[in-house]
């Protein structure tokens, strides 16, 4: 306040992510500090970013029709695009309804990881090879390391296994955003793969 800050927007993560780990401790500690600061604040709590958690980076290898699923894959998650989170961030600036508010953010639907795999299979026309990582293995991974980054990543995977459903009805009434769906995301990334394949094939034929 003394430096002229009129609104502080903090990016945390979903309240459903409760597994004890360094990142969760850091996120919640900052939330408490922001709430008690005396500034106008908005805390955004997005669910799992589809561009990260439905990507080869964490084992969702859609280019090769393979998917690593943490846990049984039966619990729903409100996957959200980080583009939509950025749009919410812009919308809440100087918005009175967002002052001293915590916004839980998810996508337009709650889909289990198993349902996500089916969407990708339908979009690609290919069956996926699915590898389920048991919760016990994730717990062992978390317990076996003292590295804060590895502990935090294991904690996020455990929370993924538990699911993260978020009801967006009230939030969307206050902040109307057309949210990208997992189906939209799947269509976009699979189209990019097909387009790249087409480019490579064209280039090869030109050399003949």
Structure report:
The chain contains eight helices and six strands, in the order βαβαββαβαβαααα. By secondary structure, it is α/β, with parallel strands linked by helices. It has a single domain, classed as 3-Layer(aba) Sandwich (Rossmann fold), CATH 3.40.50.720. The strands form two sheets. A three-stranded parallel beta sheet has the order 1-2-5, with helices on both faces. It has a three-stranded mixed beta sheet with strand order 3-4-6. The longest helix has 25 residues. It starts with 7 loop residues before the first strand and ends with a helix. The C terminus is likely disordered.
Give a short summary of the structure.
This protein is α/β, with parallel strands linked by helices and 208 residues long. It is built from eight helices and six strands. The protein has one domain: 3-Layer(aba) Sandwich (Rossmann fold).
């Amino acid at each position: 306040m003394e430096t002229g800050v009129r609104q502080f927007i903090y990016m945390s993560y979903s309240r459903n992510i409760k597994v004890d780990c360094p990142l969760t401790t850091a996120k919640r500690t900052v939330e408490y500090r922001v709430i008690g600061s005396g500034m106008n604040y908005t805390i955004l709590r997005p669910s799992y970013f589809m561009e990260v958690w439905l990507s080869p980076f964490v084992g969702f290898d859609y280019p090769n029709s393979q998917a690593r699923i943490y846990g049984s894959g039966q619990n729903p998650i409100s996957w959200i695009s980080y583009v939509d989170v950025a749009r919410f961030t812009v919308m809440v600036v100087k918005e009175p309804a967002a002052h001293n508010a915590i916004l839980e953010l998810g996508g337009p639907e709650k889909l289990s990881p198993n349902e996500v795999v089916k969407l990708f299979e339908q979009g690609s026309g290919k069956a996926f090879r699915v590898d389920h990582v048991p919760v016990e293995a994730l717990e062992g991974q978390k317990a076996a390391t003292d590295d804060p980054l590895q502990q935090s990543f294991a904690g996020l995977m455990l929370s993924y296994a538990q699911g993260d459903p978020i009801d967006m009805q009230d939030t969307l009434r206050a902040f109307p955003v057309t949210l990208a769906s997992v189906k939209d995301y799947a269509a976009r990334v699979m189209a990019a793969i097909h387009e790249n394949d087409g480019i490579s094939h064209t280039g090869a034929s030109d050399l003949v």
